[in-house]
Hints:
The complex is a heterodimer of chains A (178) and B (474). Chain A has 178 residues and is α+β, with helices and mostly antiparallel strands.
Amino acid sequence: MNQTAGPPKERPCCGEAPDRRAFHTRLTLALSGVIGALMVTPGLGFVLAPLFRSRVQKWRSVGKLEDFKPGATVLVEFEDPSPEPWAGTTAKTGAWLRRAGESEFIAFSINCRHLGCPVRWVETASLFMCPCHGGVYYSNGDVAGGPPPEPLARYQVRVRDGVVEILTAAVPLTTTPI
Amino acid sequence: MKQRRQQAWDWIDSRIGYTECFLPLLTHIVPRDARWWYVFGSATLTAFLVQVASGVCLAMAYVPAGDQAYESLKFITEQAPFGSLLRGMHAYGASAMVMLVVIHLAQVYLHAAYKYPRELNWMTGVVLFFAVLGMAFTGQLLRWDANGVWSVFVATEMAARAPLVGPLISDFLMGGETVGGSTLTRFFVYHVFVLPGVIFAGVGLHLFLLFRHGVSEMPDAEQPVDPATYKSEYKARLAATGVPFWPDAIWRDVVFSAAVVATIVGCAAVFGPPALDAPPDPASINANPMPDWYFWWYFAVLSLVPPSFELWFILGVPVVGFLVLFCLPLFCGKGHRAPSKRPWAIGIVVASLAGFVVLTIYGYREPWSPDFGVPLLPESVVGVDGGPVAQGAVIAHEKGCLFCHAVGGLGGHRGPDLSDIGRQLSRDELIIRINNGGYNMPAFAGSIDSERLSLLVAFLQSRDGGTPAHSPGE
Ligand code: FES
């Protein structure tokens, strides 16, 4: 039926006047940008949210005062400051806790200041030792050997109503002022 | 019947364009000399497909949640039909992929196939290489046993060292301020969506560029690359001597890929998947974090470099390494390709390989780590069963000396062997060394009383390198 339509009408080859085409080009680009922004912005906000969350620090109780023998260094476990409901055991974190006096305590992070591996307290040698690259610390947390650049980080500890509490802190502790 | 089939195929072919679009790709002409040297790229792709196939299956049972991931892995390994085999394939496939991508990279570098006009082939390849390493690393964390959890600590600690943005990067990686529930879900997403997405896109681009510029020829010392004439000369040579990729060249790729897949499945069937470590618990200190074997060299580097250089290594190896590799063709995109004309290239590959092997062996033997499992020295090593020397041997164990020093073949290797220390140092020198410590050795002055010190010294003085009464095994 096209054959019967006669000669085509006078108009630019591709159907649109130049300024109309330019407008459509701009419109397409701008709307594509809007589509992209609408899709990506909530996702970016969601993914980057942890960066802007203010750091919470919480006091977590780790046991009764009388549970700790003076002078002994023991491993205590407590819940991290912002546990997810699905975290299970991975919401736990730990510290080396020493009763230094009647109600004075020192708590060391279990993370080596070199690269964060778990340091062990070797009671008989009075040393903290790291299994990863051989970092060694004295009982006061100072570096005794190996690659760690700084002493073990310490947590704040307090005793309230006969209960020992530790102030949680964010990891990596190397970069966290506590 | 035959005609019917032909008709049906023609119908499909005219719509999907097999003959028009895909066949020319398959049968494109490649240089005749593209022989066994060239099989590593396709084998890497095949290993990736093994990872996709096994990974998709594993993801059907794996639960990426802090409290269930470990249990789901145990289920996959111990109960699910073929689960152990699939986990094994995924683990050995990862090793194969890392190995093959490195060999492919080294071969392309040695033959300078990154020169004009294939600079972008190389650059996309370098991105793929790092994506593969990222897959290997994130995959190790998804195992979410004690080792996996502690690896996150190490990763975030390293990332946190970056100036200014370090803490932000570590928060981003962990999905919060500590390693916990959101860390695993994040790593799952990196491993299953983000990095595979990068790899799929990268492989697509890599292959597109391969077809666009053609497979590079084996280098010829007489044919340095000159961008002005290269393309026309390459075309002429191809027209004169080239062969179609299918089937004249591809059979080698398929033979080698078949061997790779057979090896992966064979290893998975014979050796099984890597054993799961203890359940994850950031509060448990009895872990001995160790990365997968292809990262041991880096583990060794981190132990060996002096602390003042460490930051340079932690940030330098990944970041500068990437930049140098990525930008390489921009600086030397023309000229000779033949290894015989590029002694530096050979030197770099040989030195890298030697460094990798030596550091990997070091990383495996971990001579820098205290050996926490050292038993008390037996009488056969001590030589006596009572008196000060025997008491001193007990103190050497208690004080952790043996974690780092070996005596009579027993003990750690971080510090020097003490088997003949009695001949090397006098009593006073021993006392000074124990009290004051030394390079990498703690000072024990504050934690040992004089009586125990004398016993320890008595034991050490008795170590004169002579053979013990009995061999340690007795
Ligand atoms: S992480 Fe402790 S010494 Fe490296």
